[in-house]
Write the structure tokens for this entry.
Amino acid sequence: MTCDQPATAGSWPARRLFPLLATAGLLVVGMASTVWWGPALVGKTNWSLPHDLWGTLIAAQRLAHGDLAGLYTRPTGLVSLPGAAVILVPVVLAAQAAGLSLRVPGPHLAHPGAWLLLGPYAIAASATALFAADALAEHLGVSRPRRAVLAGANAVGVWSVSARWGHPEDAVAVALLVAGLLALARDRPGRAAWLAGAAIAVQPLVLLALPVLLAAMPARRWPGFLARAAAPGAVLLAAAATANWSATAGAVLRQPNWPAVDHPTPWTPLAPALGHGAVAAGPVRWLAILAACGCGLAVWRRRAGAPVDWADTDALRELLWWAAMALALRSVFEPVMVAYYPWPALALALIAATGTWRRLITTSVAAAAVTGLAQGQWRGLWTWWAPVITLLVVTLVLARPRRLEEARGTGPEERPREMMIAG
């Protein structure tokens, strides 16, 4: 076997060598950047910690103690579905067993010992996205060298999501979504539906990819798929709403955010004001949902309503690219942006780009540029948002699969043959 041939045999550690190495690198870089050279670079003695994580940890602590009524009350700041807290319950229980405090870090707590446990857990949980991406790339027949590049490129975004901003739920949701796509590729729609449902329960942004998934299967499967996909989030949300309806509804439906703290966008004026500088991001997100339905319709029309032939790897890459497009709509239409928002779209675009070295390398460079630029602290509408969105669009264009590129240049008599996805 040559170094450029795909390999599917061997033990699990050998098959997942590159995600394992990337995870090890993330743990080293993530912890060093928060407790050592990160604070030194900005001249601080406090550790540079992802403060967003502590609010979700408090929600997980309350969940572990059966306090469902407190999931969405201060100071959790939770606006996602309860699954975001569920994934942190194990580390909360471990911290409590070790006698570690979960107090929010600050001037009174410059070096919280709990971070030495919480940090590696959050990074490792986020790294599940690397393993899911590698498994799907393996299914696509991607060579090991390209899978190594894929793991490294995605690790850049995982660092931003986990160690930098403290939102492992986004990465876990992407991991579950990619696992669901792999289940679809193996013609296991029931399993795919449950995985998509778990992803939605952890981070509802996965809803944007749902129309694309539905367009890939026969319409007769839609009711069962939707029922399974809705069940996990609905059960968790119903439990929280029953315990405290007003707090749950207020957080999940309005989803407050602060444009003076994060990054305003052209859609900020459309978001209802909530007072104290906050706006309700939830209502404006319907624009992204409608646009995502348009992506699903585009996939359906390209296939003329026929189900995807999962033996066709080009078809699967095209589906991945459309799912990346749908996830990118969150950033395009978001009323208040945060640096880690583009990464889920980048993660799927990178997998779609593994068909050729040129696509993978150029997409990896562009994805790293998006991640790096997004870390900027300036808040000008056209000096931060516009460049980030432009680079995001460029990344998606670079990742565009072969079939989509060929469809642009074919003549009318060739287009049906070149554009057909179904067998």
Remarks:
- The mean pLDDT is 91.
- The first strand starts at residue 256 and ends at 257.
- The two ends are 30 Å apart (CA to CA).
- The CA atoms of residues 5 and 143 lie 5 Å apart.
